[in-house]
Amino acid sequence: MADRAATPSAAAPATTTPAAGALSDACRPALAPHVRLREDQARGRWVLLAPERMLVPDEVALDVLRRLDGRRTLGDLITALAADYGAAPGDIRPDVDDLLRSLIDRGFVVA
């Protein structure tokens, strides 16, 4: 995922940063209130927008981001992704955790 930050944000994330371990299966990740996932039709890509920051997610990250509704648990999200990608939940869990932790640390996602 390419980070295209105009300037670093001084604001702290809207949630506490998770410990180095995995996120809880019961957490309900969502885009932070100030973040929007939008299609940039002029450039033919999706972007994750926050004040003075923008990320351009790759295909898989975009698939994860589209599912972050704040209602679905992380466990349910992992199960759905595993089914859609024909993978074992345990195989994709570390990648999803890494993605979400990174986005939480940068204030794009809350959990």
Biggest β-sheet, characterized? 4 strands, antiparallel
Number of strands: 6
- Count of helices? 3
What is the succession of H and E elements?
A: EEEEEHHHE
- End-to-end Cα distance, whole Å, is 20 Å
The helix fraction, in percent, is 25-40%
Secondary-structure-based class equals: alpha+beta
Regions with little confidence, pLDDT below 50 for 5+ residues: 1-19
Shape: globular
Mean pLDDT across the residues is: 85
Q: How much of the polypeptide forms β-strand, as a percent range?
A: 15-25%
Strand order of the largest sheet: 1-5-4-3
**Cα-based radius of gyration, to the nearest Å:** 14 Å
Please, could you describe this protein's structure?
Helices cover 33% and strands 19% of the residues. The chain is an alpha+beta fold and 111 residues long. Strands 1-5-4-3 form a 4-stranded antiparallel beta sheet, with helices on one face. A two-stranded antiparallel ribbon has the order 2-6. Strand 4 and strand 5 form a beta hairpin. The N terminus is likely disordered.
What descriptors fit this protein?
four-stranded antiparallel sheet, alpha+beta, disordered N terminus, about 110 residues, two-stranded antiparallel sheet
